[in-house]
């Protein structure tokens, strides 16, 4: 970082990430120092960190079926726009590509926004792997998205990607009940057996059967293949969910927690992803709300062809699961910033393979400040200062000392037509008390940066 600081003071247009230097360009680059600092944390690899413990738990459960999944956990976060978007068939104008949502390093490189960025590569890697009818992979990694600031949002979180494919063999052509079909049936039975062993029953609500028109199947798969593949996908994800939540429920029963659920309720809903069809999301009912856990679907043939498979050679599924929110509820971590804490009082509470409840070590009072401003007159469109741009300014100045940022007021002056916004910034440290003077300094810096970068007029 010393070297990097030297570069930035000399205004050499480079950034260094994971030991590699990348050219920046003023039109595109929006990755910041505070984000770059997080690129070598690899929390998912720490075996005594909540995210690492959860990753390990899920990997073990999935591979307990028949050890099909090859594991890839060391991909670095810088990827190309090709890998993150084009390889998956994202249209050129997809909102996911926008600078307001994605951290770009330059025109061609960015911080991956999802683990799907490595799907193509992993499909290639497992292609000539074995003669097995069934193969697959799991990828866990940190992913980056420009977003709001509050207790459940952080610009970096973790995902696990999973995929399974079955090979249609030559001998299968024209046969009524081909070998791989029988294999998929057997694979479904295996997952179901494990599901039935879980101690709390899982209730599944699925109104995505039969397939709706807005979530169509692909031409190259038969109705039977779609049916079997999606059954295997859904049961496999339900197995993950019931493993994780059963562990939690068992410990709640042991601790006689009064909000212990008696059953585990999940539901399937239709979804859309450019590289799967049909596509779904699973949600779990937890403490009064539906929690979105995972997106998934049957892999589009285009992706498999790009990875070098022959037409109609394979069929299969993929999913992408968010780890942080599950880790937070599993370990009872009240603020997502804690996952990034380097405080011993946090880290010593967790150990490999154990699900334990986090005991808050202190609660330091927060202190809020409002920033109110008029948007520049010649730019009446509020997207000129995207909300995520404001979040980045605050993050860069105050880092993890900011707990949340909320829009508390916005109005347009009836005569002049000028627009005014007011945001409330809550400053609060997880480790110590902040002084008023310290908070004022941070707030002053935020205000002047906002004026300088976006020519707003403070009110
Ligand atoms: C994806 O990222 C797709 N790549 C998932 C996928 C993979 C679909 C393979 C099909 C096939 P999505 O943006 O919905 O989808 O994110 C997936 C999961 O990541 C969500 O269900 C959620 O659990 C988690 N997630 C998304 N955004 C956040 C966030 N800001 N903070 C924490 N977790 C998040
Ligand atoms: Mg989603």
Strand and helix order = HEEHHEEHEHEEHEHEEEHEHHEHEEHE
What does the radius of gyration come to?
24 Å
Oligomer kind: single chain
Number of domains: 2
| N-end to C-end Cα span | 37 Å
| pLDDT averaged over residues | 92
Proper CATH architecture of the largest domain? 2-Layer Sandwich
Biggest β-sheet: strands ordered side by side in the sheet? 3-6-7-12-11-10-9-8
CATH domain class of the largest domain: Alpha Beta
Number of strands: 16
Q: What is the SS-derived class? A: alpha+beta
Describe this structure as you would to a colleague.
- The structure is a single chain.
- By secondary structure, this protein is of the alpha+beta class.
- The chain has two domains: 41-347, BirA Bifunctional Protein, domain 2, CATH 3.30.930; 363-458, Ferrodoxin-fold anticodon-binding domain (Alpha-Beta Plaits, 2-Layer Sandwich).
- It has twelve helices and 16 strands.
- It has helices spanning 2-10, 33-36, 50-66, 81-84, 119-127, 179-196, 223-254, 301-306, 324-330, 344-347, 387-398, 436-454, and strands at 14-17, 20-23, 69-72, 78-80, 109-111, 134-144, 156-167, 202-206, 264-273, 276-286, 289-299, 314-322, 367-374, 402-412, 419-427, 457-458.
- The strands form four sheets. It has an eight-stranded mixed beta sheet, with helices on both faces. Strands 14-15-13-16 form a four-stranded antiparallel beta sheet.
- Helix 11 (387-398) packs across helix 12 (436-454).
- It starts with a helix and ends with a strand.
- The model has no long low-confidence stretch (mean pLDDT 92).
- The structure holds adenosine-5'-[phenylalaninyl-phosphate] and magnesium ion.
- Magnesium ion (MG) is lined by residues 292, 295.
